[in-house]
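Help wanted!
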Amino acid sequence: MSTIFEINATDSSTNARAGILHLPHGDVETPIFMPVGTAGTVKAVHQQELKDQVGAQIILGNTYHLYLRPGTDVIQSAGGLHHFNHWDRPILTDSGGYQVYSLSQQRKIKEEGVKFRSHIDGSLHFFSPESTIDIQRKIGADIIMAFDECTPYPCDERYAFKSMQMTHRWLDRCIDRYNDTTGLYGHEQILAPIVQGSTYPHMRKQSADYIASADMPINAIGGLSVGEPDDEMYAMTALVCDHLPHDKPRYLMGVGTPANILESISLGIDMFDCVLPTRNARHGLLYTSRGIVHIRNEKWKQCHEAIDPESSASTSRDHTLAYLRHLVISGEQLGAMISSLQNLSFYLQLVRNARRHILDGTFYTWKAALLPTLTQSA
Amino acid sequence: MSTIFEINATDSSTNARAGILHLPHGDVETPIFMPVGTAGTVKAVHQQELKDQVGAQIILGNTYHLYLRPGTDVIQSAGGLHHFNHWDRPILTDSGGYQVYSLSQQRKIKEEGVKFRSHIDGSLHFFSPESTIDIQRKIGADIIMAFDECTPYPCDERYAFKSMQMTHRWLDRCIDRYNDTTGLYGHEQILAPIVQGSTYPHMRKQSADYIASADMPINAIGGLSVGEPDDEMYAMTALVCDHLPHDKPRYLMGVGTPANILESISLGIDMFDCVLPTRNARHGLLYTSRGIVHIRNEKWKQCHEAIDPESSASTSRDHTLAYLRHLVISGEQLGAMISSLQNLSFYLQLVRNARRHILDGTFYTWKAALLPTLTQSA
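Answered by r_m:
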């Protein structure tokens, strides 16, 4: 495969870099945040809004969810997820591993794969490295993920080591299946392996070296943002970035807050996904240019100022905090719709600005000045 | 007040007419359907979509809901509902009467007004003809409604008669209060009185004559579509239209299905509102150009055709029945968003087409040909 990643600039004070990722459904400017579209929809947001208002360049789908509902057959008969959900820009699917561990009931992990019960109807299913590649072939995302075990935090060292070794063996099986098959919809799919190793530096190093040796075009870091302190997450991320090739994009899975994202960019991460912006939106927590807004708070009751005058989302410029508070308190769906647009727009503006400042050479000072406002309450 | 209604054409075979209603926030082409925005939002639809996708020209707000939440003070401090919800086209508010009878607990109707408990928190409130005019002044809609009693169906004749007489006395009090006050936001507000009389022809005639004698620019018909057979509704509507002035718009409140709307247009109705399109959308019932679609039905599981290729809503042209079924079955908010756009677009296209055919002189034959497809299952 020809190179899919160009690095346009590297920050002199940090390990941040600005690049372009060439994918079958279009180019993605990095660093990038990928909105999570669990069941083939980014919750409460129209696909057209993701393009026009949020500026999303790539979105996620969850293999576990899509496999259970609507089912792989439905997506395949539609001609893949891009046709099914009418999203013509790049898509990444996870392998389903994370959800099997976090959502399903009665999962049983063996060398062969994972037996689990659906969280929807209790039905029995089995995921293996091979079957999750097959499913992801049928879903047809631009980037597909290797099947791994995501260990919890804290994790017993013995268990973490055995799990990491199994994840590595699973990777070999994923790569074999990947090499034995082709994309079903006339475009290539890129397989990304995942570094594990819990919070043990020697394992993280060992896993990063193993994953790097697979020589795939994108490398991912899993098993972080699972409850460990931020400092530990940053330490592991820094260590792993140091052991992954510089010339390939690095994807930190499931991270995180706006501050987490800026710090991780400075450590050399290029790609992020997280449910935080959309989930917090539905719970009334907004990321805005004035700081964090808890929209249910009485203080916004008669605040007739724009939700965020600096947002790329027109709804955030047109509608007021008082109106949004009313919608959220009344349980109106428009509340979740406007809040989700605000938070996703904030995240995408954050990574666009980060990219611009990396290109400008002003990333470090910009980040230092911005960090306090990212965590303060408005 | 100068005339606010122009009639552009009258159908030769029916009593249908096409007109233009001049309101403070813009012109409205009739016959018109007004989407219901109960709590200051048409559920699950962005205001911009109401304009661009649905082609809504005027929306409703519910005085009862807005009074309870966010409260009249909040809306007044925003400068009225138009500013509060960022909708710059005409708005109509009902008087709150209907919701007091249908939603609130422990209501007590007396000559002075109605004491009721909020359905939200059980708190005690009082609505009178005067207070509902005051509240509607603060909300600031283009059209405000007189406070009436909407009798249930069936209704004892004695009760219906006493109730109608009280509604007429309440109208006098509404008009007095209306004349003693002015709009708060620099534009006029039009007060519309409401014909009652249950399903008793002599009362309907008496009420229509009384309401006509008030000589207001718009006349409304209430107390229908409350459970009576369609034939009875049409008979009452025809009778009342006959007794209301020809040169003023007639508004049939709370009606109805697409077929109800076409039949009532042919009887001389110019304005409609109903929760059906949005409520049915949220329950998975779609009005489409191919007939009624129950989207949860298994038959749509792998139907990768557009939801409605003839819809004005781009989401209905871009997305498939299979995708929408998946969203609705998965409980995804996007399902309600796309379904609501479909149904509202269908209703607005229906009245736009009706208007065009009235202007063309082809209304009667068009209606006859269309009616069967409006009730058939796709």
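OP: Thanks! One thing I noticed: The interface with chain A takes residues 39-41, 43-48, 69-70, 73-74, 77-79, 83-86, 301-302, 304, 314-315, 318-320, 322-323, 325-327, 329-330, 332-334, 336-337 of chain B (CB under 8 Å).
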